[in-house]
Write a structure and sequence with these properties.
This protein has 418 residues and is of the alpha+beta class. It folds into two domains: 246 residues, BirA Bifunctional Protein, domain 2 (2-Layer Sandwich); 87 residues, Rossmann fold. The longest helix is centred in the first third of the chain and has 20 residues. The radius of gyration is 27 Å and the shape is elongated. It starts with 13 loop residues before the first helix and ends with a helix. Bound molecules: adenosine-5'-triphosphate and magnesium ion (MG). The site of adenosine-5'-triphosphate has 19 residues, from strand 6, strand 10, strand 11 and helix 12. Adenosine-5'-triphosphate binds next to strand 6, strand 10, strand 11 and helix 12.
Length: 418
């Protein structure tokens, strides 16, 4: 019986993994430049963590979370995002006593959404969280990090910036927004009507065409920020300008999660079609406290690796070639054993190489060498073993270079990387 993979959960095959490794390698490199250190937390947490940390009113917890009872003992959930678990670990291990911390993570997340292009049930996020600093320059620094990351990968993205207010100014705004939207309920889509009660800010985020006239006319939080939020927002912009990071202010940008205050940002790309967001972030100054830690401000973002991979692919950014330096082609039994020995020697010296233990026709072995992306092929038979001399054939230029077998490792190591 053939058993298929689970709907909305994808395999990343070896041909594509090179791109993923590149995204992750560059992330590690850039994040280190900014002082972020990696944390690894479990894929499973108590369901309660997300109910409290993400918010019961959010779609993520409400509709999309994979929850299961572990042998009748406790209610667990596959993590739908990385922030709640990271904050839990931050609190559980008392990391806050050491002062401000900058952490990052990468790994699979799970949401039972309707699978479509750019939206899956298992997907992967890379995210950063900075704890312990409430000042706006931290926000700007983190946004600059994301911009740097995209620049290093060689792709562009649009950066949208907003402030979602805080406990001082948001409640009054939400009341005003609810009253306005309630008055025009008839013009809203069913999702918006549903969110109106549970998560009114999220209504502003609706992409349904028929809702747009109502949403464009909605009262604007940016015009109703309290002094603290206004100054914070202005300082973030001042710092971004100083850093040369380009952004657009988008008063309708909100984050779907309850714990966000002040800075909200998002990166989008036209290469993605309708699921245009590749990364989203924001400040969550009350989250650590909500999850039982001491009052600790924080700001973080998460980016979707599947969507970033799509952007890179669209932009024609090929991952670095990963073929072996040399492929040994054996002409006879003696050559086959010599190939095995030489391959082991090269590998000990850190040089990637390969061979086909089936031996067989030279032509077939050369074909195999090309298929695995080898740079050179080297034929070994009794004659080469006797003389200690062989020919290294460049598989793209077809040029042949004589080489002493004893000098093979040194010769390959001295070549400039292609
Ligand atoms: P969207 O509006 O696209 O649903 P979101 O607000 O749910 O996004 P976040 O929870 O902020 O997204 O997650 C950050 C990033 O993770 C998104 O910008 C996206 O790149 C990625 N992401 C979120 N959900 C999925 C999914 N189901 N499949 C693939 N990537 C996802
Ligand atoms: Mg979503």
């Amino acid at each position: 019986m053939k058993i298929a993979g689970v709907k909305g959960m994808n395999d990343v095959l070896p041909a594509d993994v090179a791109r993923w490794q590149e995204m992750e390698r560059v992330a590690r490199e850039v994040f280190a430049l900014y002082g972020y250190r990696e944390v690894r937390t479990p894929a499973v947490e108590h369901a309660q963590l997300f109910a409290r940390g993400v918010g019961e009113a959010t779609d993520i917890v409400n509709k999309e979370m994979y929850v299961f009872e572990d042998k009748g003992e406790e209610l667990l959930a596959l993590r739908p995002e990385g922030t709640a678990g990271t904050v839990r670990a931050f609190i559980e291990h008392g990391a806050y006593v050491e002062g401000p911390q900058k952490w990052f993570y990468m790994g699979p997340m799970f949401r039972r959404e309707k699978p479509q292009k750019g939206r899956y049930r298992q997907f992967h996020q890379i995210g950063c969280e900075a704890f312990g600093i409430a000042e706006p320059f931290l926000d700007a620094e983190q946004i600059a990090l994301v911009a740097d990351y995209f620049a290093r990968l060689g792709v562009g993205a649009r950066l949208k910036l907003n402030s979602v207010g805080d406990a001082a100014c948001r409640p009054a705004y939400l009341a005003e927004l609810k009253a306005y939207l309630g008055g025009r309920k008839a013009e809203l889509c069913p999702d918006c009507i549903d969110r109106l009660e549970r998560n009114p800010l999220r209504v502003l985020d609706c992409k349904v065409e028929s809702c747009q006239p109502v949403l464009n006319g909605a009262p604007r939080l940016l015009e109703r920020l309290c002094d603290g939020c206004r100054t914070h927002f202005d300082q973030v912009k001042v710092a971004l300008d100083a850093l040369g990071v380009r952004y657009e202010v988008d008063g309708r940008l909100v984050r779907g999660l309850d714990y966000y205050v002040r800075t909200a940002y998002e990166l989008t790309s036209d290469a993605l079609g309708s699921q245009s967001a590749v990364a989203g972030g924001g400040r969550y100054d009350r989250l650590v406290e909500t999850l039982g830690g001491p009052p600790t401000p924080g700001i973080g973002f998460a980016l979707g690796e599947e969507r970033l991979a799509m952007i890179l692919e669209k932009a024609g950014k090929a991952p670095p070639a990963q073929g072996p330096a040399v492929f040994f082609v054996s002409a006879d039994a003696e050559g086959a054993l010599e190939a095995l020995r030489r391959a082991a020697e090269l590998r000990r010296g850190g040089i990637a190489c390969d061979l086909d233990p089936r031996g067989g026709k030279l032509k077939a072995q050369f074909k195999q060498a090309e298929r695995v992306g080898a740079r050179y092929a080297l034929v070994l038979g009794g004659a080469e073993v006797q003389s200690g001399q062989a020919k290294l054939k460049d598989l793209s230029s077809r040029e042949e270079t004589p080489v002493a077998l004893a000098q093979l490792a040194g010769f390959l190591a001295s070549l400039p990387r292609p």
